[in-house]
Amino acid sequence: MIEELMKQLGSEKVSMNETELTRHSQDESCHPGVEPAVICFPESRSDIEIILQIAQEQHVPVTAYGAGTGLEGGSIPVHGGIILNTERMKRIIDFSPEDFTVTVEPGVTRKELNESINKHGLMFPNDPGADASIGGMVSTNASGTTAVRYGSMREQILDLEVVLADGRVIHTGSRAKKSSSGYNLSGLIAGSEGTLGIVSSITLKLHGIPEHTIAARCTFPTAKACAEAARLVLLHDIPVMRLELVDAVSVGEVNRFGGYQFPEKHSLFFEFAGSKKTVEDEAGLVEELMRDAQCEDWEVAADSLERARIWKARHELSYAYRHTSGKEVLGGDVCVPVSRLPELVDYSRELAEDAHMKAGVFGHVGDGNFHTLIVYDPKKPEEQKKAEQILERLAIKAIDSGGTCTGEHGVGIGKKKFQKREHGEALEIMKEIKQLFDPDGILNPGKIFE
Amino acid sequence: MIEELMKQLGSEKVSMNETELTRHSQDESCHPGVEPAVICFPESRSDIEIILQIAQEQHVPVTAYGAGTGLEGGSIPVHGGIILNTERMKRIIDFSPEDFTVTVEPGVTRKELNESINKHGLMFPNDPGADASIGGMVSTNASGTTAVRYGSMREQILDLEVVLADGRVIHTGSRAKKSSSGYNLSGLIAGSEGTLGIVSSITLKLHGIPEHTIAARCTFPTAKACAEAARLVLLHDIPVMRLELVDAVSVGEVNRFGGYQFPEKHSLFFEFAGSKKTVEDEAGLVEELMRDAQCEDWEVAADSLERARIWKARHELSYAYRHTSGKEVLGGDVCVPVSRLPELVDYSRELAEDAHMKAGVFGHVGDGNFHTLIVYDPKKPEEQKKAEQILERLAIKAIDSGGTCTGEHGVGIGKKKFQKREHGEALEIMKEIKQLFDPDGILNPGKIFE
Ligand SMILES: Cc1cc2nc3c(=O)[nH]c(=O)nc-3n(C[C@H](O)[C@H](O)[C@H](O)COP(=O)(O)OP(=O)(O)OC[C@H]3O[C@@H](n4cnc5c(N)ncnc54)[C@H](O)[C@@H]3O)c2cc1C
Ligand SMILES: Cc1cc2nc3c(=O)[nH]c(=O)nc-3n(C[C@H](O)[C@H](O)[C@H](O)COP(=O)(O)OP(=O)(O)OC[C@H]3O[C@@H](n4cnc5c(N)ncnc54)[C@H](O)[C@@H]3O)c2cc1C
């Protein structure tokens, strides 16, 4: 298989270097690493076709690897085989500012994309914090801090080019903003975590860069009170750009990690963006709402430096936890109807406290989506066990509350066990679709389904 | 088969009455009618299960029928068999104003839904003009005048309950606003025109009713100039509520139909909605843009009566054409990247004029989606032929311009012939999915695929 790959791709696109094998055994999750047999670095769609053809002929698993920032082990090659790393596919294939669209290869990262289009007054808003690849973001249906305004990745997609397991290449859409023509394959491939095909190009909607931005924060006595206050903003249909909950423990964590001095209290972080007048109105209205909800303080960032600092801190949060020396973290990613949010946030804090585990609760509360990070000592298996139990109870409660076990990180390895409970009979249909697209099971086996 | 239906459903839910057979042979399109063998009126999900079971056992086609307002013959039972009419399924199963969600049975119409929720300050914005059923709107992925702001039906769906051909019942989502859990079946069923399953309940996102609304209109010397002006509004990222093009011929048509006195010129109709201040700013900005683009006039509706009149007229437009006595209409529904819109609008006017056919061009230009209605005399087959040729050339040009042959009406019967050109290899995948969901081909056979 490796000889064949070298012959057909050229040896410079194939690696079995030790460092590369180690790097590709893991993503940013704490699922146990597994080394692939070989790593391929396709430089074009036809390279991807060659890799899939060889894999198909020789019955070898192929796991796509974007930037490896996934949090559910999606790109860990649990059954070995080939890693297909898209990092050399960084071309911007088409940029049409007049249509607000761009077509990119899957290895382009979110920041790279924005660097090349921001100067034209346009932006790609989807922001998971990490500098993920566009191919990876499509494949996990990523969202992040701005989804409250723009929706998840799925809503940004106009067209995908996908190489299927049997070598066929399809386009799932067009450059039209909407369509009622045929079945919606874009939405099906988005979020399928490389189990139905390899995404070889992506056409995305873009947005104008807002003229004016305001950042603000306020604190409340409990995390539950924060969640309740966040709901008020939604009820008033205010199109906030970002609306994040960060609990007191997490504020402390990020203060220490990044040298900030935010008050170590349960906080809401806001961003408003649009025309100057509109944004000022919105911020004013939200301040009123927060004061009515009895926030302890309300602070608007004095300038753009201060504003950048707030969001830098928010984005460092997850890293702050993940890089506590000698510790590991396990994370939850539930999403529930907003009316259940205060209760769920409370429940997750309670579970952690009852178990005497250090835990942070934060997330995209504007969507009813939040993360619970539990810190444990990897040398103490009983701690890991306890962390797992907490997250399991939380996921189950979220599903039973009409929500989902994963709002944005994907199923990967960690959320497989909740799929039956969440989807019921529909899980069988999903398996049949998997079987249809990939009858030999070469595409990222061991993910999503048990 | 009919005996079995009567026995299991009860005879009051089964009809072979002549008037009913005629009514169900047609939708609002001009595709030739075909009578079903029998019409069933299920009153619950379990009735739907019974119907599908009998159809499956006896290999009889089942075609779902919502309000019959479809424009592509989607609900015409071209192979006879059973019509499954959802008009008795009108329960609001759950209304959660605190979550902005509602769960309804498929026979509830758009207006009925709004009547029952508007008093709580909430609305369901999707508006195809006709009083379609929610089940039908899901199944064609309908959109209409407000899609420029809220997106198509697919974007409004949180969860669908679907009865599959083999009798299994699945839920495709949850009540959470977003999810990365498993494959996106909601999006797949939406727009599948009753060919993959029967939708038995729908959970939708709702929105707050805007505090303030402004309607305005302006005219330009050419339809192309209207389309160019519409693009300007999009480039400025102004969240208009509605943005419609109506060409001069169509304004004339609606004036005569409804007794209006709008200037019979190529026009843009606008609606702005939100907080009072924001809306006034938006309308002011758009007025400036339109004047810069050299509109001939700019008129803001003086009061809410005048505003209602403008949108009533816009909604009557399609009916105005469709009810010209002794005439029939054939309609196009292309959607293209907005930069191609002026050219396509121009092309469609040109095609009609060259063929000396009376035609109107109007539509949701904020999405790049417009309709071309060609009026012909059904007693002159050569006229119908010419109308078909015009729409065929237009659809092909739209596809070749990176667009789609149907932005919102669906494929039904009329757009089948363009599917291969538009989807290429992906059409095979769609057929395989159809085969997977409905191996015996009992669900709405003869639609979408040749
Ligand atoms: C600090 C931190 C914060 C984060 N915050 C968020 C957040 O707020 N919101 C959020 O949604 N996520 C968040 N994430 C998770 C992560 O950034 C996303 O899941 C992202 O989408 C992963 O992209 P990637 O390029 O790193 O993909 P990878 O991790 O490399 O892969 C992810 C999955 O996609 C598949 N895949 C990758 N490329 C392709 C392709 N071309 N074709 C088919 N399949 C492919 C892989 O096989 C795998 O299953 C965060 C991660 C970190 C480390
Ligand atoms: C004057 C006029 C203006 C219009 N303007 C617009 C517009 O602006 N935008 C737009 O999108 N449409 C428009 N339409 C078209 C029409 O209103 C839409 O296509 C609407 O979605 C059809 O809904 P219905 O309930 O009438 O469905 P039907 O016409 O009864 O059925 C449509 C399709 O859905 C299937 N179906 C119905 N119910 C179910 C179910 N429960 N489960 C599975 N399949 C089902 C049917 O089999 C059929 O294939 C217009 C129509 C008219 C007459």
Automatic annotation (TrEMBL), chains A, B:
Superkingdom of the source species: Bacteria
Tell me which cofactor or cofactors this protein depends on: FAD
Q: Where is the FAD-binding PCMH-type domain?
A: 31-209
Q: What is its EC number?
A: 1.1.2.4
Could you tell me the keywords of this UniProt record? FAD, Flavoprotein, Oxidoreductase, Transit peptide
Q: Which Pfam families match?
A: FAD-oxidase_C, FAD_binding_4
Q: Does Flavoprotein show up as a keyword for this record?
A: yes
Q: In which family does this protein belong, per the annotation?
A: Belongs to the FAD-binding oxidoreductase/transferase type 4 family.
Name of this protein: D-lactate dehydrogenase (cytochrome)
Upper lineage: Bacteria, Bacillati, Bacillota, Bacilli, Bacillales
